[in-house]
Specification:
Radius of gyration: 29 Å
Helix content: over 70%
Distance between the termini: 51 Å
Number of helices: 26
Number of strands: 0
Shape: globular
Amino acid sequence: MVESWLIIPFLNPLMTEKRPDPADQNPAQNIVKGGLVLHLRLLFFIIFILLLPLQLVFAQVGSIAKVEDAIEKFHFNRAEKEISAIPSSATRHYYLIRILFLKNLLTEDPAFEEPFLSACKAGIEDISTLPATDPFKRTYLSEIYFQRGVIRYQKKNYLGLAGDLQKSCEMAEKNQSRFPVNPEQMKLAGGYRVVLSTIPQNWQWLTGLLCFRGDVQNGLENLEKSARESSLLPFESEVVLYYYEKNILSNPELAHQRMARIAQKKPGYFIYRFLEASSLSGLGRNEEALKILDEGEKFRTDAQVFYTPIWDHYRAKAHLFKLDFDPAIQFFTRFLTDFKGKTFRGDATFKLGLALELSGRREASQKVFASISGVESSGFDMDDYALAMSEKFARQPMAANEIVLFKARFLFDGGYYNESQKMLEGLLLKANPLTSDEKTELYYRLARNFGELKNIPLAEKYYAACIEQTPGEALWMKAYAAYYAGKLMESQEKYPAARGLYEFALTFEGYFYQGGLEQRCKAALQQLPKL
């Protein structure tokens, strides 16, 4: 299709009336010529009128491209200004709501909540007036209901969450039925299919409200299609795929490859640099992750970038993983000062306390651990663990064995496997007796290290030793040992043994990080080859 503004200059000479030339042969010819010119003018005028809608379409497409580019770069203020050039009010609402949603999600600042909810109300009313034949109508509504549900979840409004997710799912399903080849609804449809196939037990009540069926493979294909073909923020589908690959499918290498590819194509983009650092951290490549995270000051001082304090949380953890306590304390403190929400607050408070405790500052660490009583759980696994352990260490200092285990744990998380292993082996040879919880953790961490160091026989040995223990608060490590032992079996194509271990891991109840493990086990079971 050729843009109308390229066609019109070529029509201008034909649309200009020519003055009669006295040298013409006769008046009859002049009348014929004049009539022909008038007919041509009328014809081209009609063509021009017909092309005006195309001008609006191209104006909308050009404006949307600028808005999406600004959102992708986290230049939210610029994006809000660019929105005004979009002709369609429904589309303007869609993008404004997306920006306000991201501001809420990344800061949890109450100042953004009311503008977001008001924009949702106005946007839903406006978009609902679009004709049913518009393939974007239900796509817009589905995503807006989903976003509002997420913000309501942050506020622990579970009734509002359930209602919004139900509406979102219904809209996505109806749109897919009416426009089956339309890629625009694939982002949410794919997300629902993956999540519903791996949903933790404590969220099973949602499955009765939502209309999609769980299907990991089909859901991933939907997301890939959306990333390739959608015209509505396709980069978000890539981010969702990255999240699932890293955190649910337990394939950090695949997640890193995806994000490294995008970051190389779009260097300097805030979100991709952040996720690339996160992917490197998931692979135990902490030094490379830290190098990227140290760029945070550049983004922090860039007036165009909407900076999220969550960057400081990850930066603090990267320093903690190498037992570099002073900068870890600095960035955890800065995150807790700047971030307004509950998500990660418990985890950051706990890890700040650990950094102080492990560096020998017991008086300061005790105050931080004690402050956890004023921190409300966000409902995430990591916060539930952090709250419980902080309460314990507020009452009593860490035992010598616990100090070694925590240091070995952080070194492992950073990919410093040999250093972690030396600490653990020293504890294994110590004469000091170990409690059941300490034995469970020691065997679990030895197995994880041996697995990363490609010593499969010893990894299997210590996973089995961990599973044989009868721990209390360390029960989560026994459950996770069964899962990782299953991954080890799967890597050796011992699929029946892997299936048995995944199913065994799902039998545990009432342990830390339960939701995350259930998702991983369910995803792993669905992806095992059918024998």
